[in-house]
UniProtKB/TrEMBL annotation:
Name listed for the protein in its UniProt record: Zn(2)-C6 fungal-type domain-containing protein
One MF term in the entry's GO annotations: zinc ion binding
Residue ranges occupied by any Zn(2)-C6 fungal-type domain in the UniProt entry: 20-50
Sequence ranges of Low complexity compositional bias: 74-96
SMART domains: Fungal_trans, GAL4
Annotated spans, Disordered: 74-97
Pfam families, sorted: Fungal_trans, Zn_clus
């Protein structure tokens, strides 16, 4: 069955596309999908019929109604937490510091005040929009190809494309993989057209609405779908899908190392895939805790003994080495011989360090937290950086390629440092920051301490580190959808520094 893809329009809105009617499909003709009769059938005065859905689950009317309800929830959530009209009145003397011109210039350059700004990360050079999806012909599935070409390297938890194609052609697996393929199509469509497809979203939701056996593939599907929803600012629904993915992963006990062996079908590649799925769930859970401002880590305290992911080159080649444990990674400083760990492992380490550092201080800090933050939180974050081997300190290779996992790791530890130190620094908060959905809650009072300069310098150093990452000479700005919120916190701190602290050309 073919599913037409909505073409890109100059106004940015994706038009809905429909399935071909039975008459056009039997003759392999392009069908406009109009109901009750397509143009071809109308011109030929023929009866026009459409095949009923074979997927079951919610029909289109029910799916449309469900999206309408979610839109109401999103609008209520956004209006209560992000509306500029509800900005606090504190620091009224500073409210005019950030002029409209500077805000417009900043937004034009970085897009941090625009919930839809993540769309700007899509490459400007895109392949032609495919006229159809061919799910039963993996070699000619343009949207799956786009997924692997443009997205997979940011969050590499699915099987590599060659291996995925083999599983997809296996009759024992194709039924299990259909929901995941639909979700990959949705992500691939974003890259090929730079638009959101309601048609493909309907397909994903219909697949997920079916009663299905407990299957780790559904964890992958909901995790990927959650990222796509977050990308297009459907934050309430993104969190809902993430919560379902976490719940199923915990029910399956994916946090135990035995899970990979039990469900790996004697394939080292599939075992590695399940390990990566758990750890990517762990990482994205932390991203949500930070970017949504909840600081509620659903899985951070889960006692997991899942072994660490291997190198990306090993995963892509299928040459999976003996896996390494988290305990070995934590004791790498005392290892008798040099042991290499993957970028994925160091990203996991960065998330664990950031979570531990954040846990040392209360969500709303007070003056008395100043010394403890410097003694405890800083030592945790600095420890991660100091233990990096030389080949992991540099995000860009000699050939100009970006290690996207290390890019995220460095961004994460820096944004954690900014978030911890700014409330105690000399970089004042301004109510206008609430325009950004990624803004942090400011302190309720002036927290000036004896160590205020130390906190200020820590923030500025972290901001400078972020800027160096963003200034890497890449062909295009093309990173994970979570990059914008990570960068925005540093940008807001820099804007405060430019207004209240820095003078001249010092940046």
């Amino acid at each position: 069955m073919t599913t037409p893809v909505a073409p890109a329009h100059s106004n940015g809105a994706a038009s809905r596309s429909s399935l071909a009617c039975l008459s056009c499909r039997s003759r392999h003709l392009k069908c406009d999908g109009k109901r009750p009769r397509c143009d071809r059938c109308a011109a030929a005065a023929k009866e026009c019929n459409y095949a009923p859905s074979r997927r079951g689950g919610l029909d289109r009317v029910a799916l449309a109604e469900r999206r309408k309800r979610l839109a109401v929830v999103n609008s209520v959530g956004n209006s209560s937490s992000e509306s500029p009209t509800s900005l606090p009145s504190q620091q009224s003397s500073d409210s005019q510091i950030f002029g409209q011109d500077s805000l417009a210039e900043l937004n034009h350059g970085l897009g941090i005040f625009d919930d839809g700004s993540l769309e700007n990360q899509i490459p400007t050079s895109v392949p032609p929009v495919p006229s159809t999806i061919r799910p039963d012909d993996p070699k000619h599935d343009a949207l799956t190809n786009a997924y692997y070409t443009d997205f997979h390297k940011f969050h590499p938890f699915l099987l590599p494309q060659e291996q995925f194609t083999r599983f997809r052609q296996d009759p024992n697996w194709i039924g299990r993989l259909r929901p995941l393929i639909s979700t990959m199509h949705l992500v691939g469509h974003i890259y090929t057209t730079r638009t959101w497809s309601s048609e493909l979203q309907d397909d994903v939701e219909s697949q997920l609405s079916e009663p299905a056996p407990i299957d780790p593939v559904i964890v992958q599907c909901r995790l990927l779908y959650s990222i796509a929803l977050f990308w297009y600012s459907h934050k309430m629904e993104a969190k809902y899908q993430m919560d379902l993915a976490v719940r199923l992963a915990l029910d399956l006990r994916m946090f135990q190392k035995e899970f990979a062996a039990t469900h790996g079908a004697e394939s080292t590649m599939l075992m590695e895939c399940w390990r990566r799925t758990w750890w990517m769930l762990y990482i994205i859970d932390a991203y949500y805790a930070g970017t949504l401002g909840t600081m509620n880590f659903a899985v951070v305290d889960v006692d997991s003994n899942v072994e660490l992911p291997c190198m990306e080159s090993e995963y892509e080649s299928g040459d999976i080495p003996e896996s390494q444990s988290l305990e070995e990674f934590d004791l790498r400083e005392f290892a008798s011989e040099d042991t290499s760990y993957s970028s994925f492992a160091y990203l996991i380490g960065a998330v664990r360090c950031a979570a531990l550092a954040i846990s040392t201080t209360p969500r709303l800090v007070a003056r008395e937290d100043s010394t403890r933050m410097i003694e405890e939180a800083d030592s945790i974050i600095d420890g991660w950086s100091l233990l990096l081997p030389e080949d992991r300190r540099h995000v860009m290779s000699k050939t100009g390629e970006i290690d996207e996992l290390m890019f995220q790791a460095h961004l994460l530890v820096n944004v954690a440092s900014i978030g911890l130190h700014r409330p105690l620094s000399d970089l004042r908060f301004n109510p206008v920051e609430y325009i950004s959905s990624c803004a942090r809650e400011p302190p309720q009072e002036n927290l000036e301490t004896e160590l205020i300069n130390v906190h200020t310098v820590r923030v500025l150093r972290a901001v400078q580190a972020q800027l160096r990452l963003l200034a890497l000479p890449t062909e295009r700005f093309h990173h994970t959808p979570f990059t914008t919120c990570m960068v925005s916190e540093g940008t807001l701190a820099l804007l405060s520094a430019c207004s209240f602290l820095l003078k001249g050309n010092i940046v």
